[in-house]
Automatic annotation (TrEMBL):
XdhC Rossmann domain segment(s): 169-310
InterPro entries in the record: MoCofactor_Util/Proc, XdhC_CoxI, XdhC_Rossmann_dom
Cited Pfam families: XdhC_C, XdhC_CoxI
Residues in XdhC- CoxI domain copies: 15-66
PANTHER family, sorted: ALDEHYDE OXIDOREDUCTASE MOLYBDENUM COFACTOR ASSEMBLY PROTEIN, MOLYBDENUM COFACTOR INSERTION CHAPERONE PAOD
Organism: Pseudomonas oryzicola
UniProt name for this protein: XdhC family protein
Length: 322
């Protein structure tokens, strides 16, 4: 899940609280090239106001046009966009792609609002859920999920859609490289949180970034990392970087990295074992030096290498496979 989908559900809940019926769309599957993965969401109301994305814009336009004509009145239905060559050409789907989309028409009931709050809790990292949708009757429910099962499973008229935490980038301290990372991460759909207690960055404002004036190690120790969190330490300040790393290795964060040369990284690893009491397995979890070796020099180039490495690990690709 991406942070954009948190925004979608927040908007859906706001509209439901205001008494609006909403249309919640969820990508179920894609074929060929498609800009967004299964699980991506869009929400709209009758006026055409909407939040989120299903594709590069063409599918959204087709959906909203149909909505303006009074279509999609059923509580739950699956629509295939780009199924034919003519439709792929009309919608201008990239590389001949197509996608199946669940379209739900939901009225602002107390049950629906409770359901949306449960989905938001899952995306904010509080728990993992599976949505269960009955296409025939339009009924919806949730159940707890403990495994890493597929995003979407369809069996007859029953749909199961897995939800988990939105991707989160935790910046352990602020620096020019960290600020550039924040920009890349936001473009990639991450929720971005920066922790730094230093007075010199107290007044810094980064668009779309939650900046907290405390040590990142404190934030991490208080549950700031879930399984979709990447922790990056980019300050060269051991008081910030080392403490953050020492806490992060005890969390389910999928990526933990620190900036520095090979020699600096070797000294840091020795220091973390000696002072922090980290075991060899803990140190092995750390990406040091951080990022892919693409000859980066400027803050933006280093940030690009960092975010590329974060995505590499998240997608399960080995460095040797690049």
């Amino acid at each position: 899940m991406q942070h954009l989908d948190v925004t979608v559900l927040e908007q859906a809940l706001a509209w439901a609280d205001q008494g609006h019926s909403v249309w919640l769309c969820t990508v179920l599957s894609t074929f060929g090239s498609a800009p967004r993965a299964p699980g991506a969401m869009l929400v709209a109301i009758q006026s055409g106001a909407h939040s989120g994305s299903l594709s590069g814009g063409c599918v959204e336009e087709a959906f909203l046009e149909a909505l303006s004509h009074g279509e999609h009145a059923a509580p739950a239905q699956v629509i295939c966009y780009g199924a034919s060559a003519e439709e792929r050409s009309r919608l201008q789907l990239p590389c001949g792609g197509s996608l199946d989309v669940l379209v739900e028409h939901r009225r602002p009931s107390a049950e629906w609002r409770t359901h949306l709050r449960q989905l938001l809790d899952a995306l904010r990292g509080q728990r993992r859920l599976t949505r269960v949708i009955d296409l025939e009757g339009g009924l919806f429910s949730t159940r707890s999920r403990t495994d890493g099962s597929d995003t979407v499973v369809r069996s007859g008229s029953r749909l199961e859609i897995a939800l988990g935490p939105a991707l989160r980038l935790l910046l352990a301290g602020l620096s020019p490289v960290a600020e550039a990372c924040a920009q890349f991460a936001r473009a990639l759909g991450f929720e971005v949180i920066a922790c730094d207690p230093r007075e010199e960055v107290a007044t810094l404002v980064l668009e779309g970034v939650t900046v907290l004036p405390l040590l990142p190690s404190i934030y991490i120790a208080n549950g700031g990392c879930h399984e979709a969190t990447a922790v990056v330490a980019l300050t060269h300040d051991p008081r910030i970087d080392d403490l953050a790393l020492m806490e992060a290795v005890h969390t389910p964060a999928f990526y933990i990295g620190a900036m520095g040369s090979k020699r600096t990284s070797e000294r840091r690893a020795e220091r973390l074992r000696r002072i922090g009491g980290l075991l060899p397995a803990d140190v092995d979890r750390l990406h040091m030096p951080i990022g892919l070796d693409i000859g980066s020099r400027t803050p933006a180039e280093i940030a690009l290498s960092v975010m590329a490495d974060v995505l590499r690990v998240y997608r399960g690709k080995a460095r040797t496979a690049l």
